[in-house]
Amino acid sequence: MLKREGFRVNHKRVGRLMRELGLCARPPARKRRTTDSGHAFARWPNLAVGLDIVRPDQLWVSDITYIHLRTEFVYLAFVMDVFTRAIRGWHLSRNLDGNLTLTALQRALKGHTPEIHHSDQGVQYANDGYVGLLRSVGCRISMATVGEPTENGYAERLVRTIKEEHIALTEYEGYADAYRQLGRFLDDIYQHKRIHSALGYVTPIEFERQWHKEQEESAASAKPRP
């Protein structure tokens, strides 16, 4: 981001300045369980492993994380497009149930349709309502192996980003305030302002727009001339 704004700086200088200012990483907090894979619904093979991801909406990943407010826990579900790193849909709820993930998916499907949807084997993703909605739009279903969070690594990294760059730095007055502030971070800052090293240091929205522009230019140049 500093380079994007015209500053000449490298990671060593940033590290030195952080040490001088007494800035360091926060120790990991005790985790709250969000995945219940002890259910009787069907399991699906992992289609994401080794997949060459070359276009938007080829692979979506989903996950759930928790947020500790002053008097309660709330749960955030999201759907992310891997190629662009764009968040397609999200929902915050007091309940860790199927409606949490289904609402996030319904929002994601309003503007896009995935080829493959990847998640863990939790009941919130394996239940008939969620699977049925994916199959109704022609999406293939993929799931990580139980106990192997690295198989949903893209989603895990997004969880870490949300926690480190927003949740850990924000005080929420309650559920409504958390919904509002998370919405601002996810829909505005993350999508339109936060640059990604994996995208060549542009934002998800910039990257996706540039990709579509390049596809249109390529298609136009390939047309035979009269």
Polypeptide structure, described:
- The protein is of the alpha/beta class and 226 residues long.
- Helices cover 38% and strands 15% of the residues.
- Strand 2 and strand 3 form a beta hairpin.
- It is globular.
- The termini are far apart.
- The model has no long low-confidence stretch (mean pLDDT 90).
Give a short synopsis of this structure:
The protein has a single domain (32-214), classed as Nucleotidyltransferase, domain 5.
Amount of beta strand? 15-25%
Say how many strands there are: 5
Which descriptor suits the 3D outline? globular
CATH C-level class: Alpha Beta
Average pLDDT confidence is: 90
**Model regions low in confidence, pLDDT < 50 over at least 5 residues:** none
CATH architecture grouping: 2-Layer Sandwich
Strand order of the largest sheet: 3-2-1-4-5
Order of helices and strands: HEEEHEHHEHHH
What is the CATH homologous superfamily assignment? Answer: Ribonuclease H-like superfamily/Ribonuclease H
Largest sheet: 5 strands, mixed
Radius of gyration over C-alpha positions, nearest whole angstrom: 19 Å
Structural class by secondary-structure content? alpha/beta
| CATH fold type | Nucleotidyltransferase, domain 5
Measure the end-to-end span.
46 Å
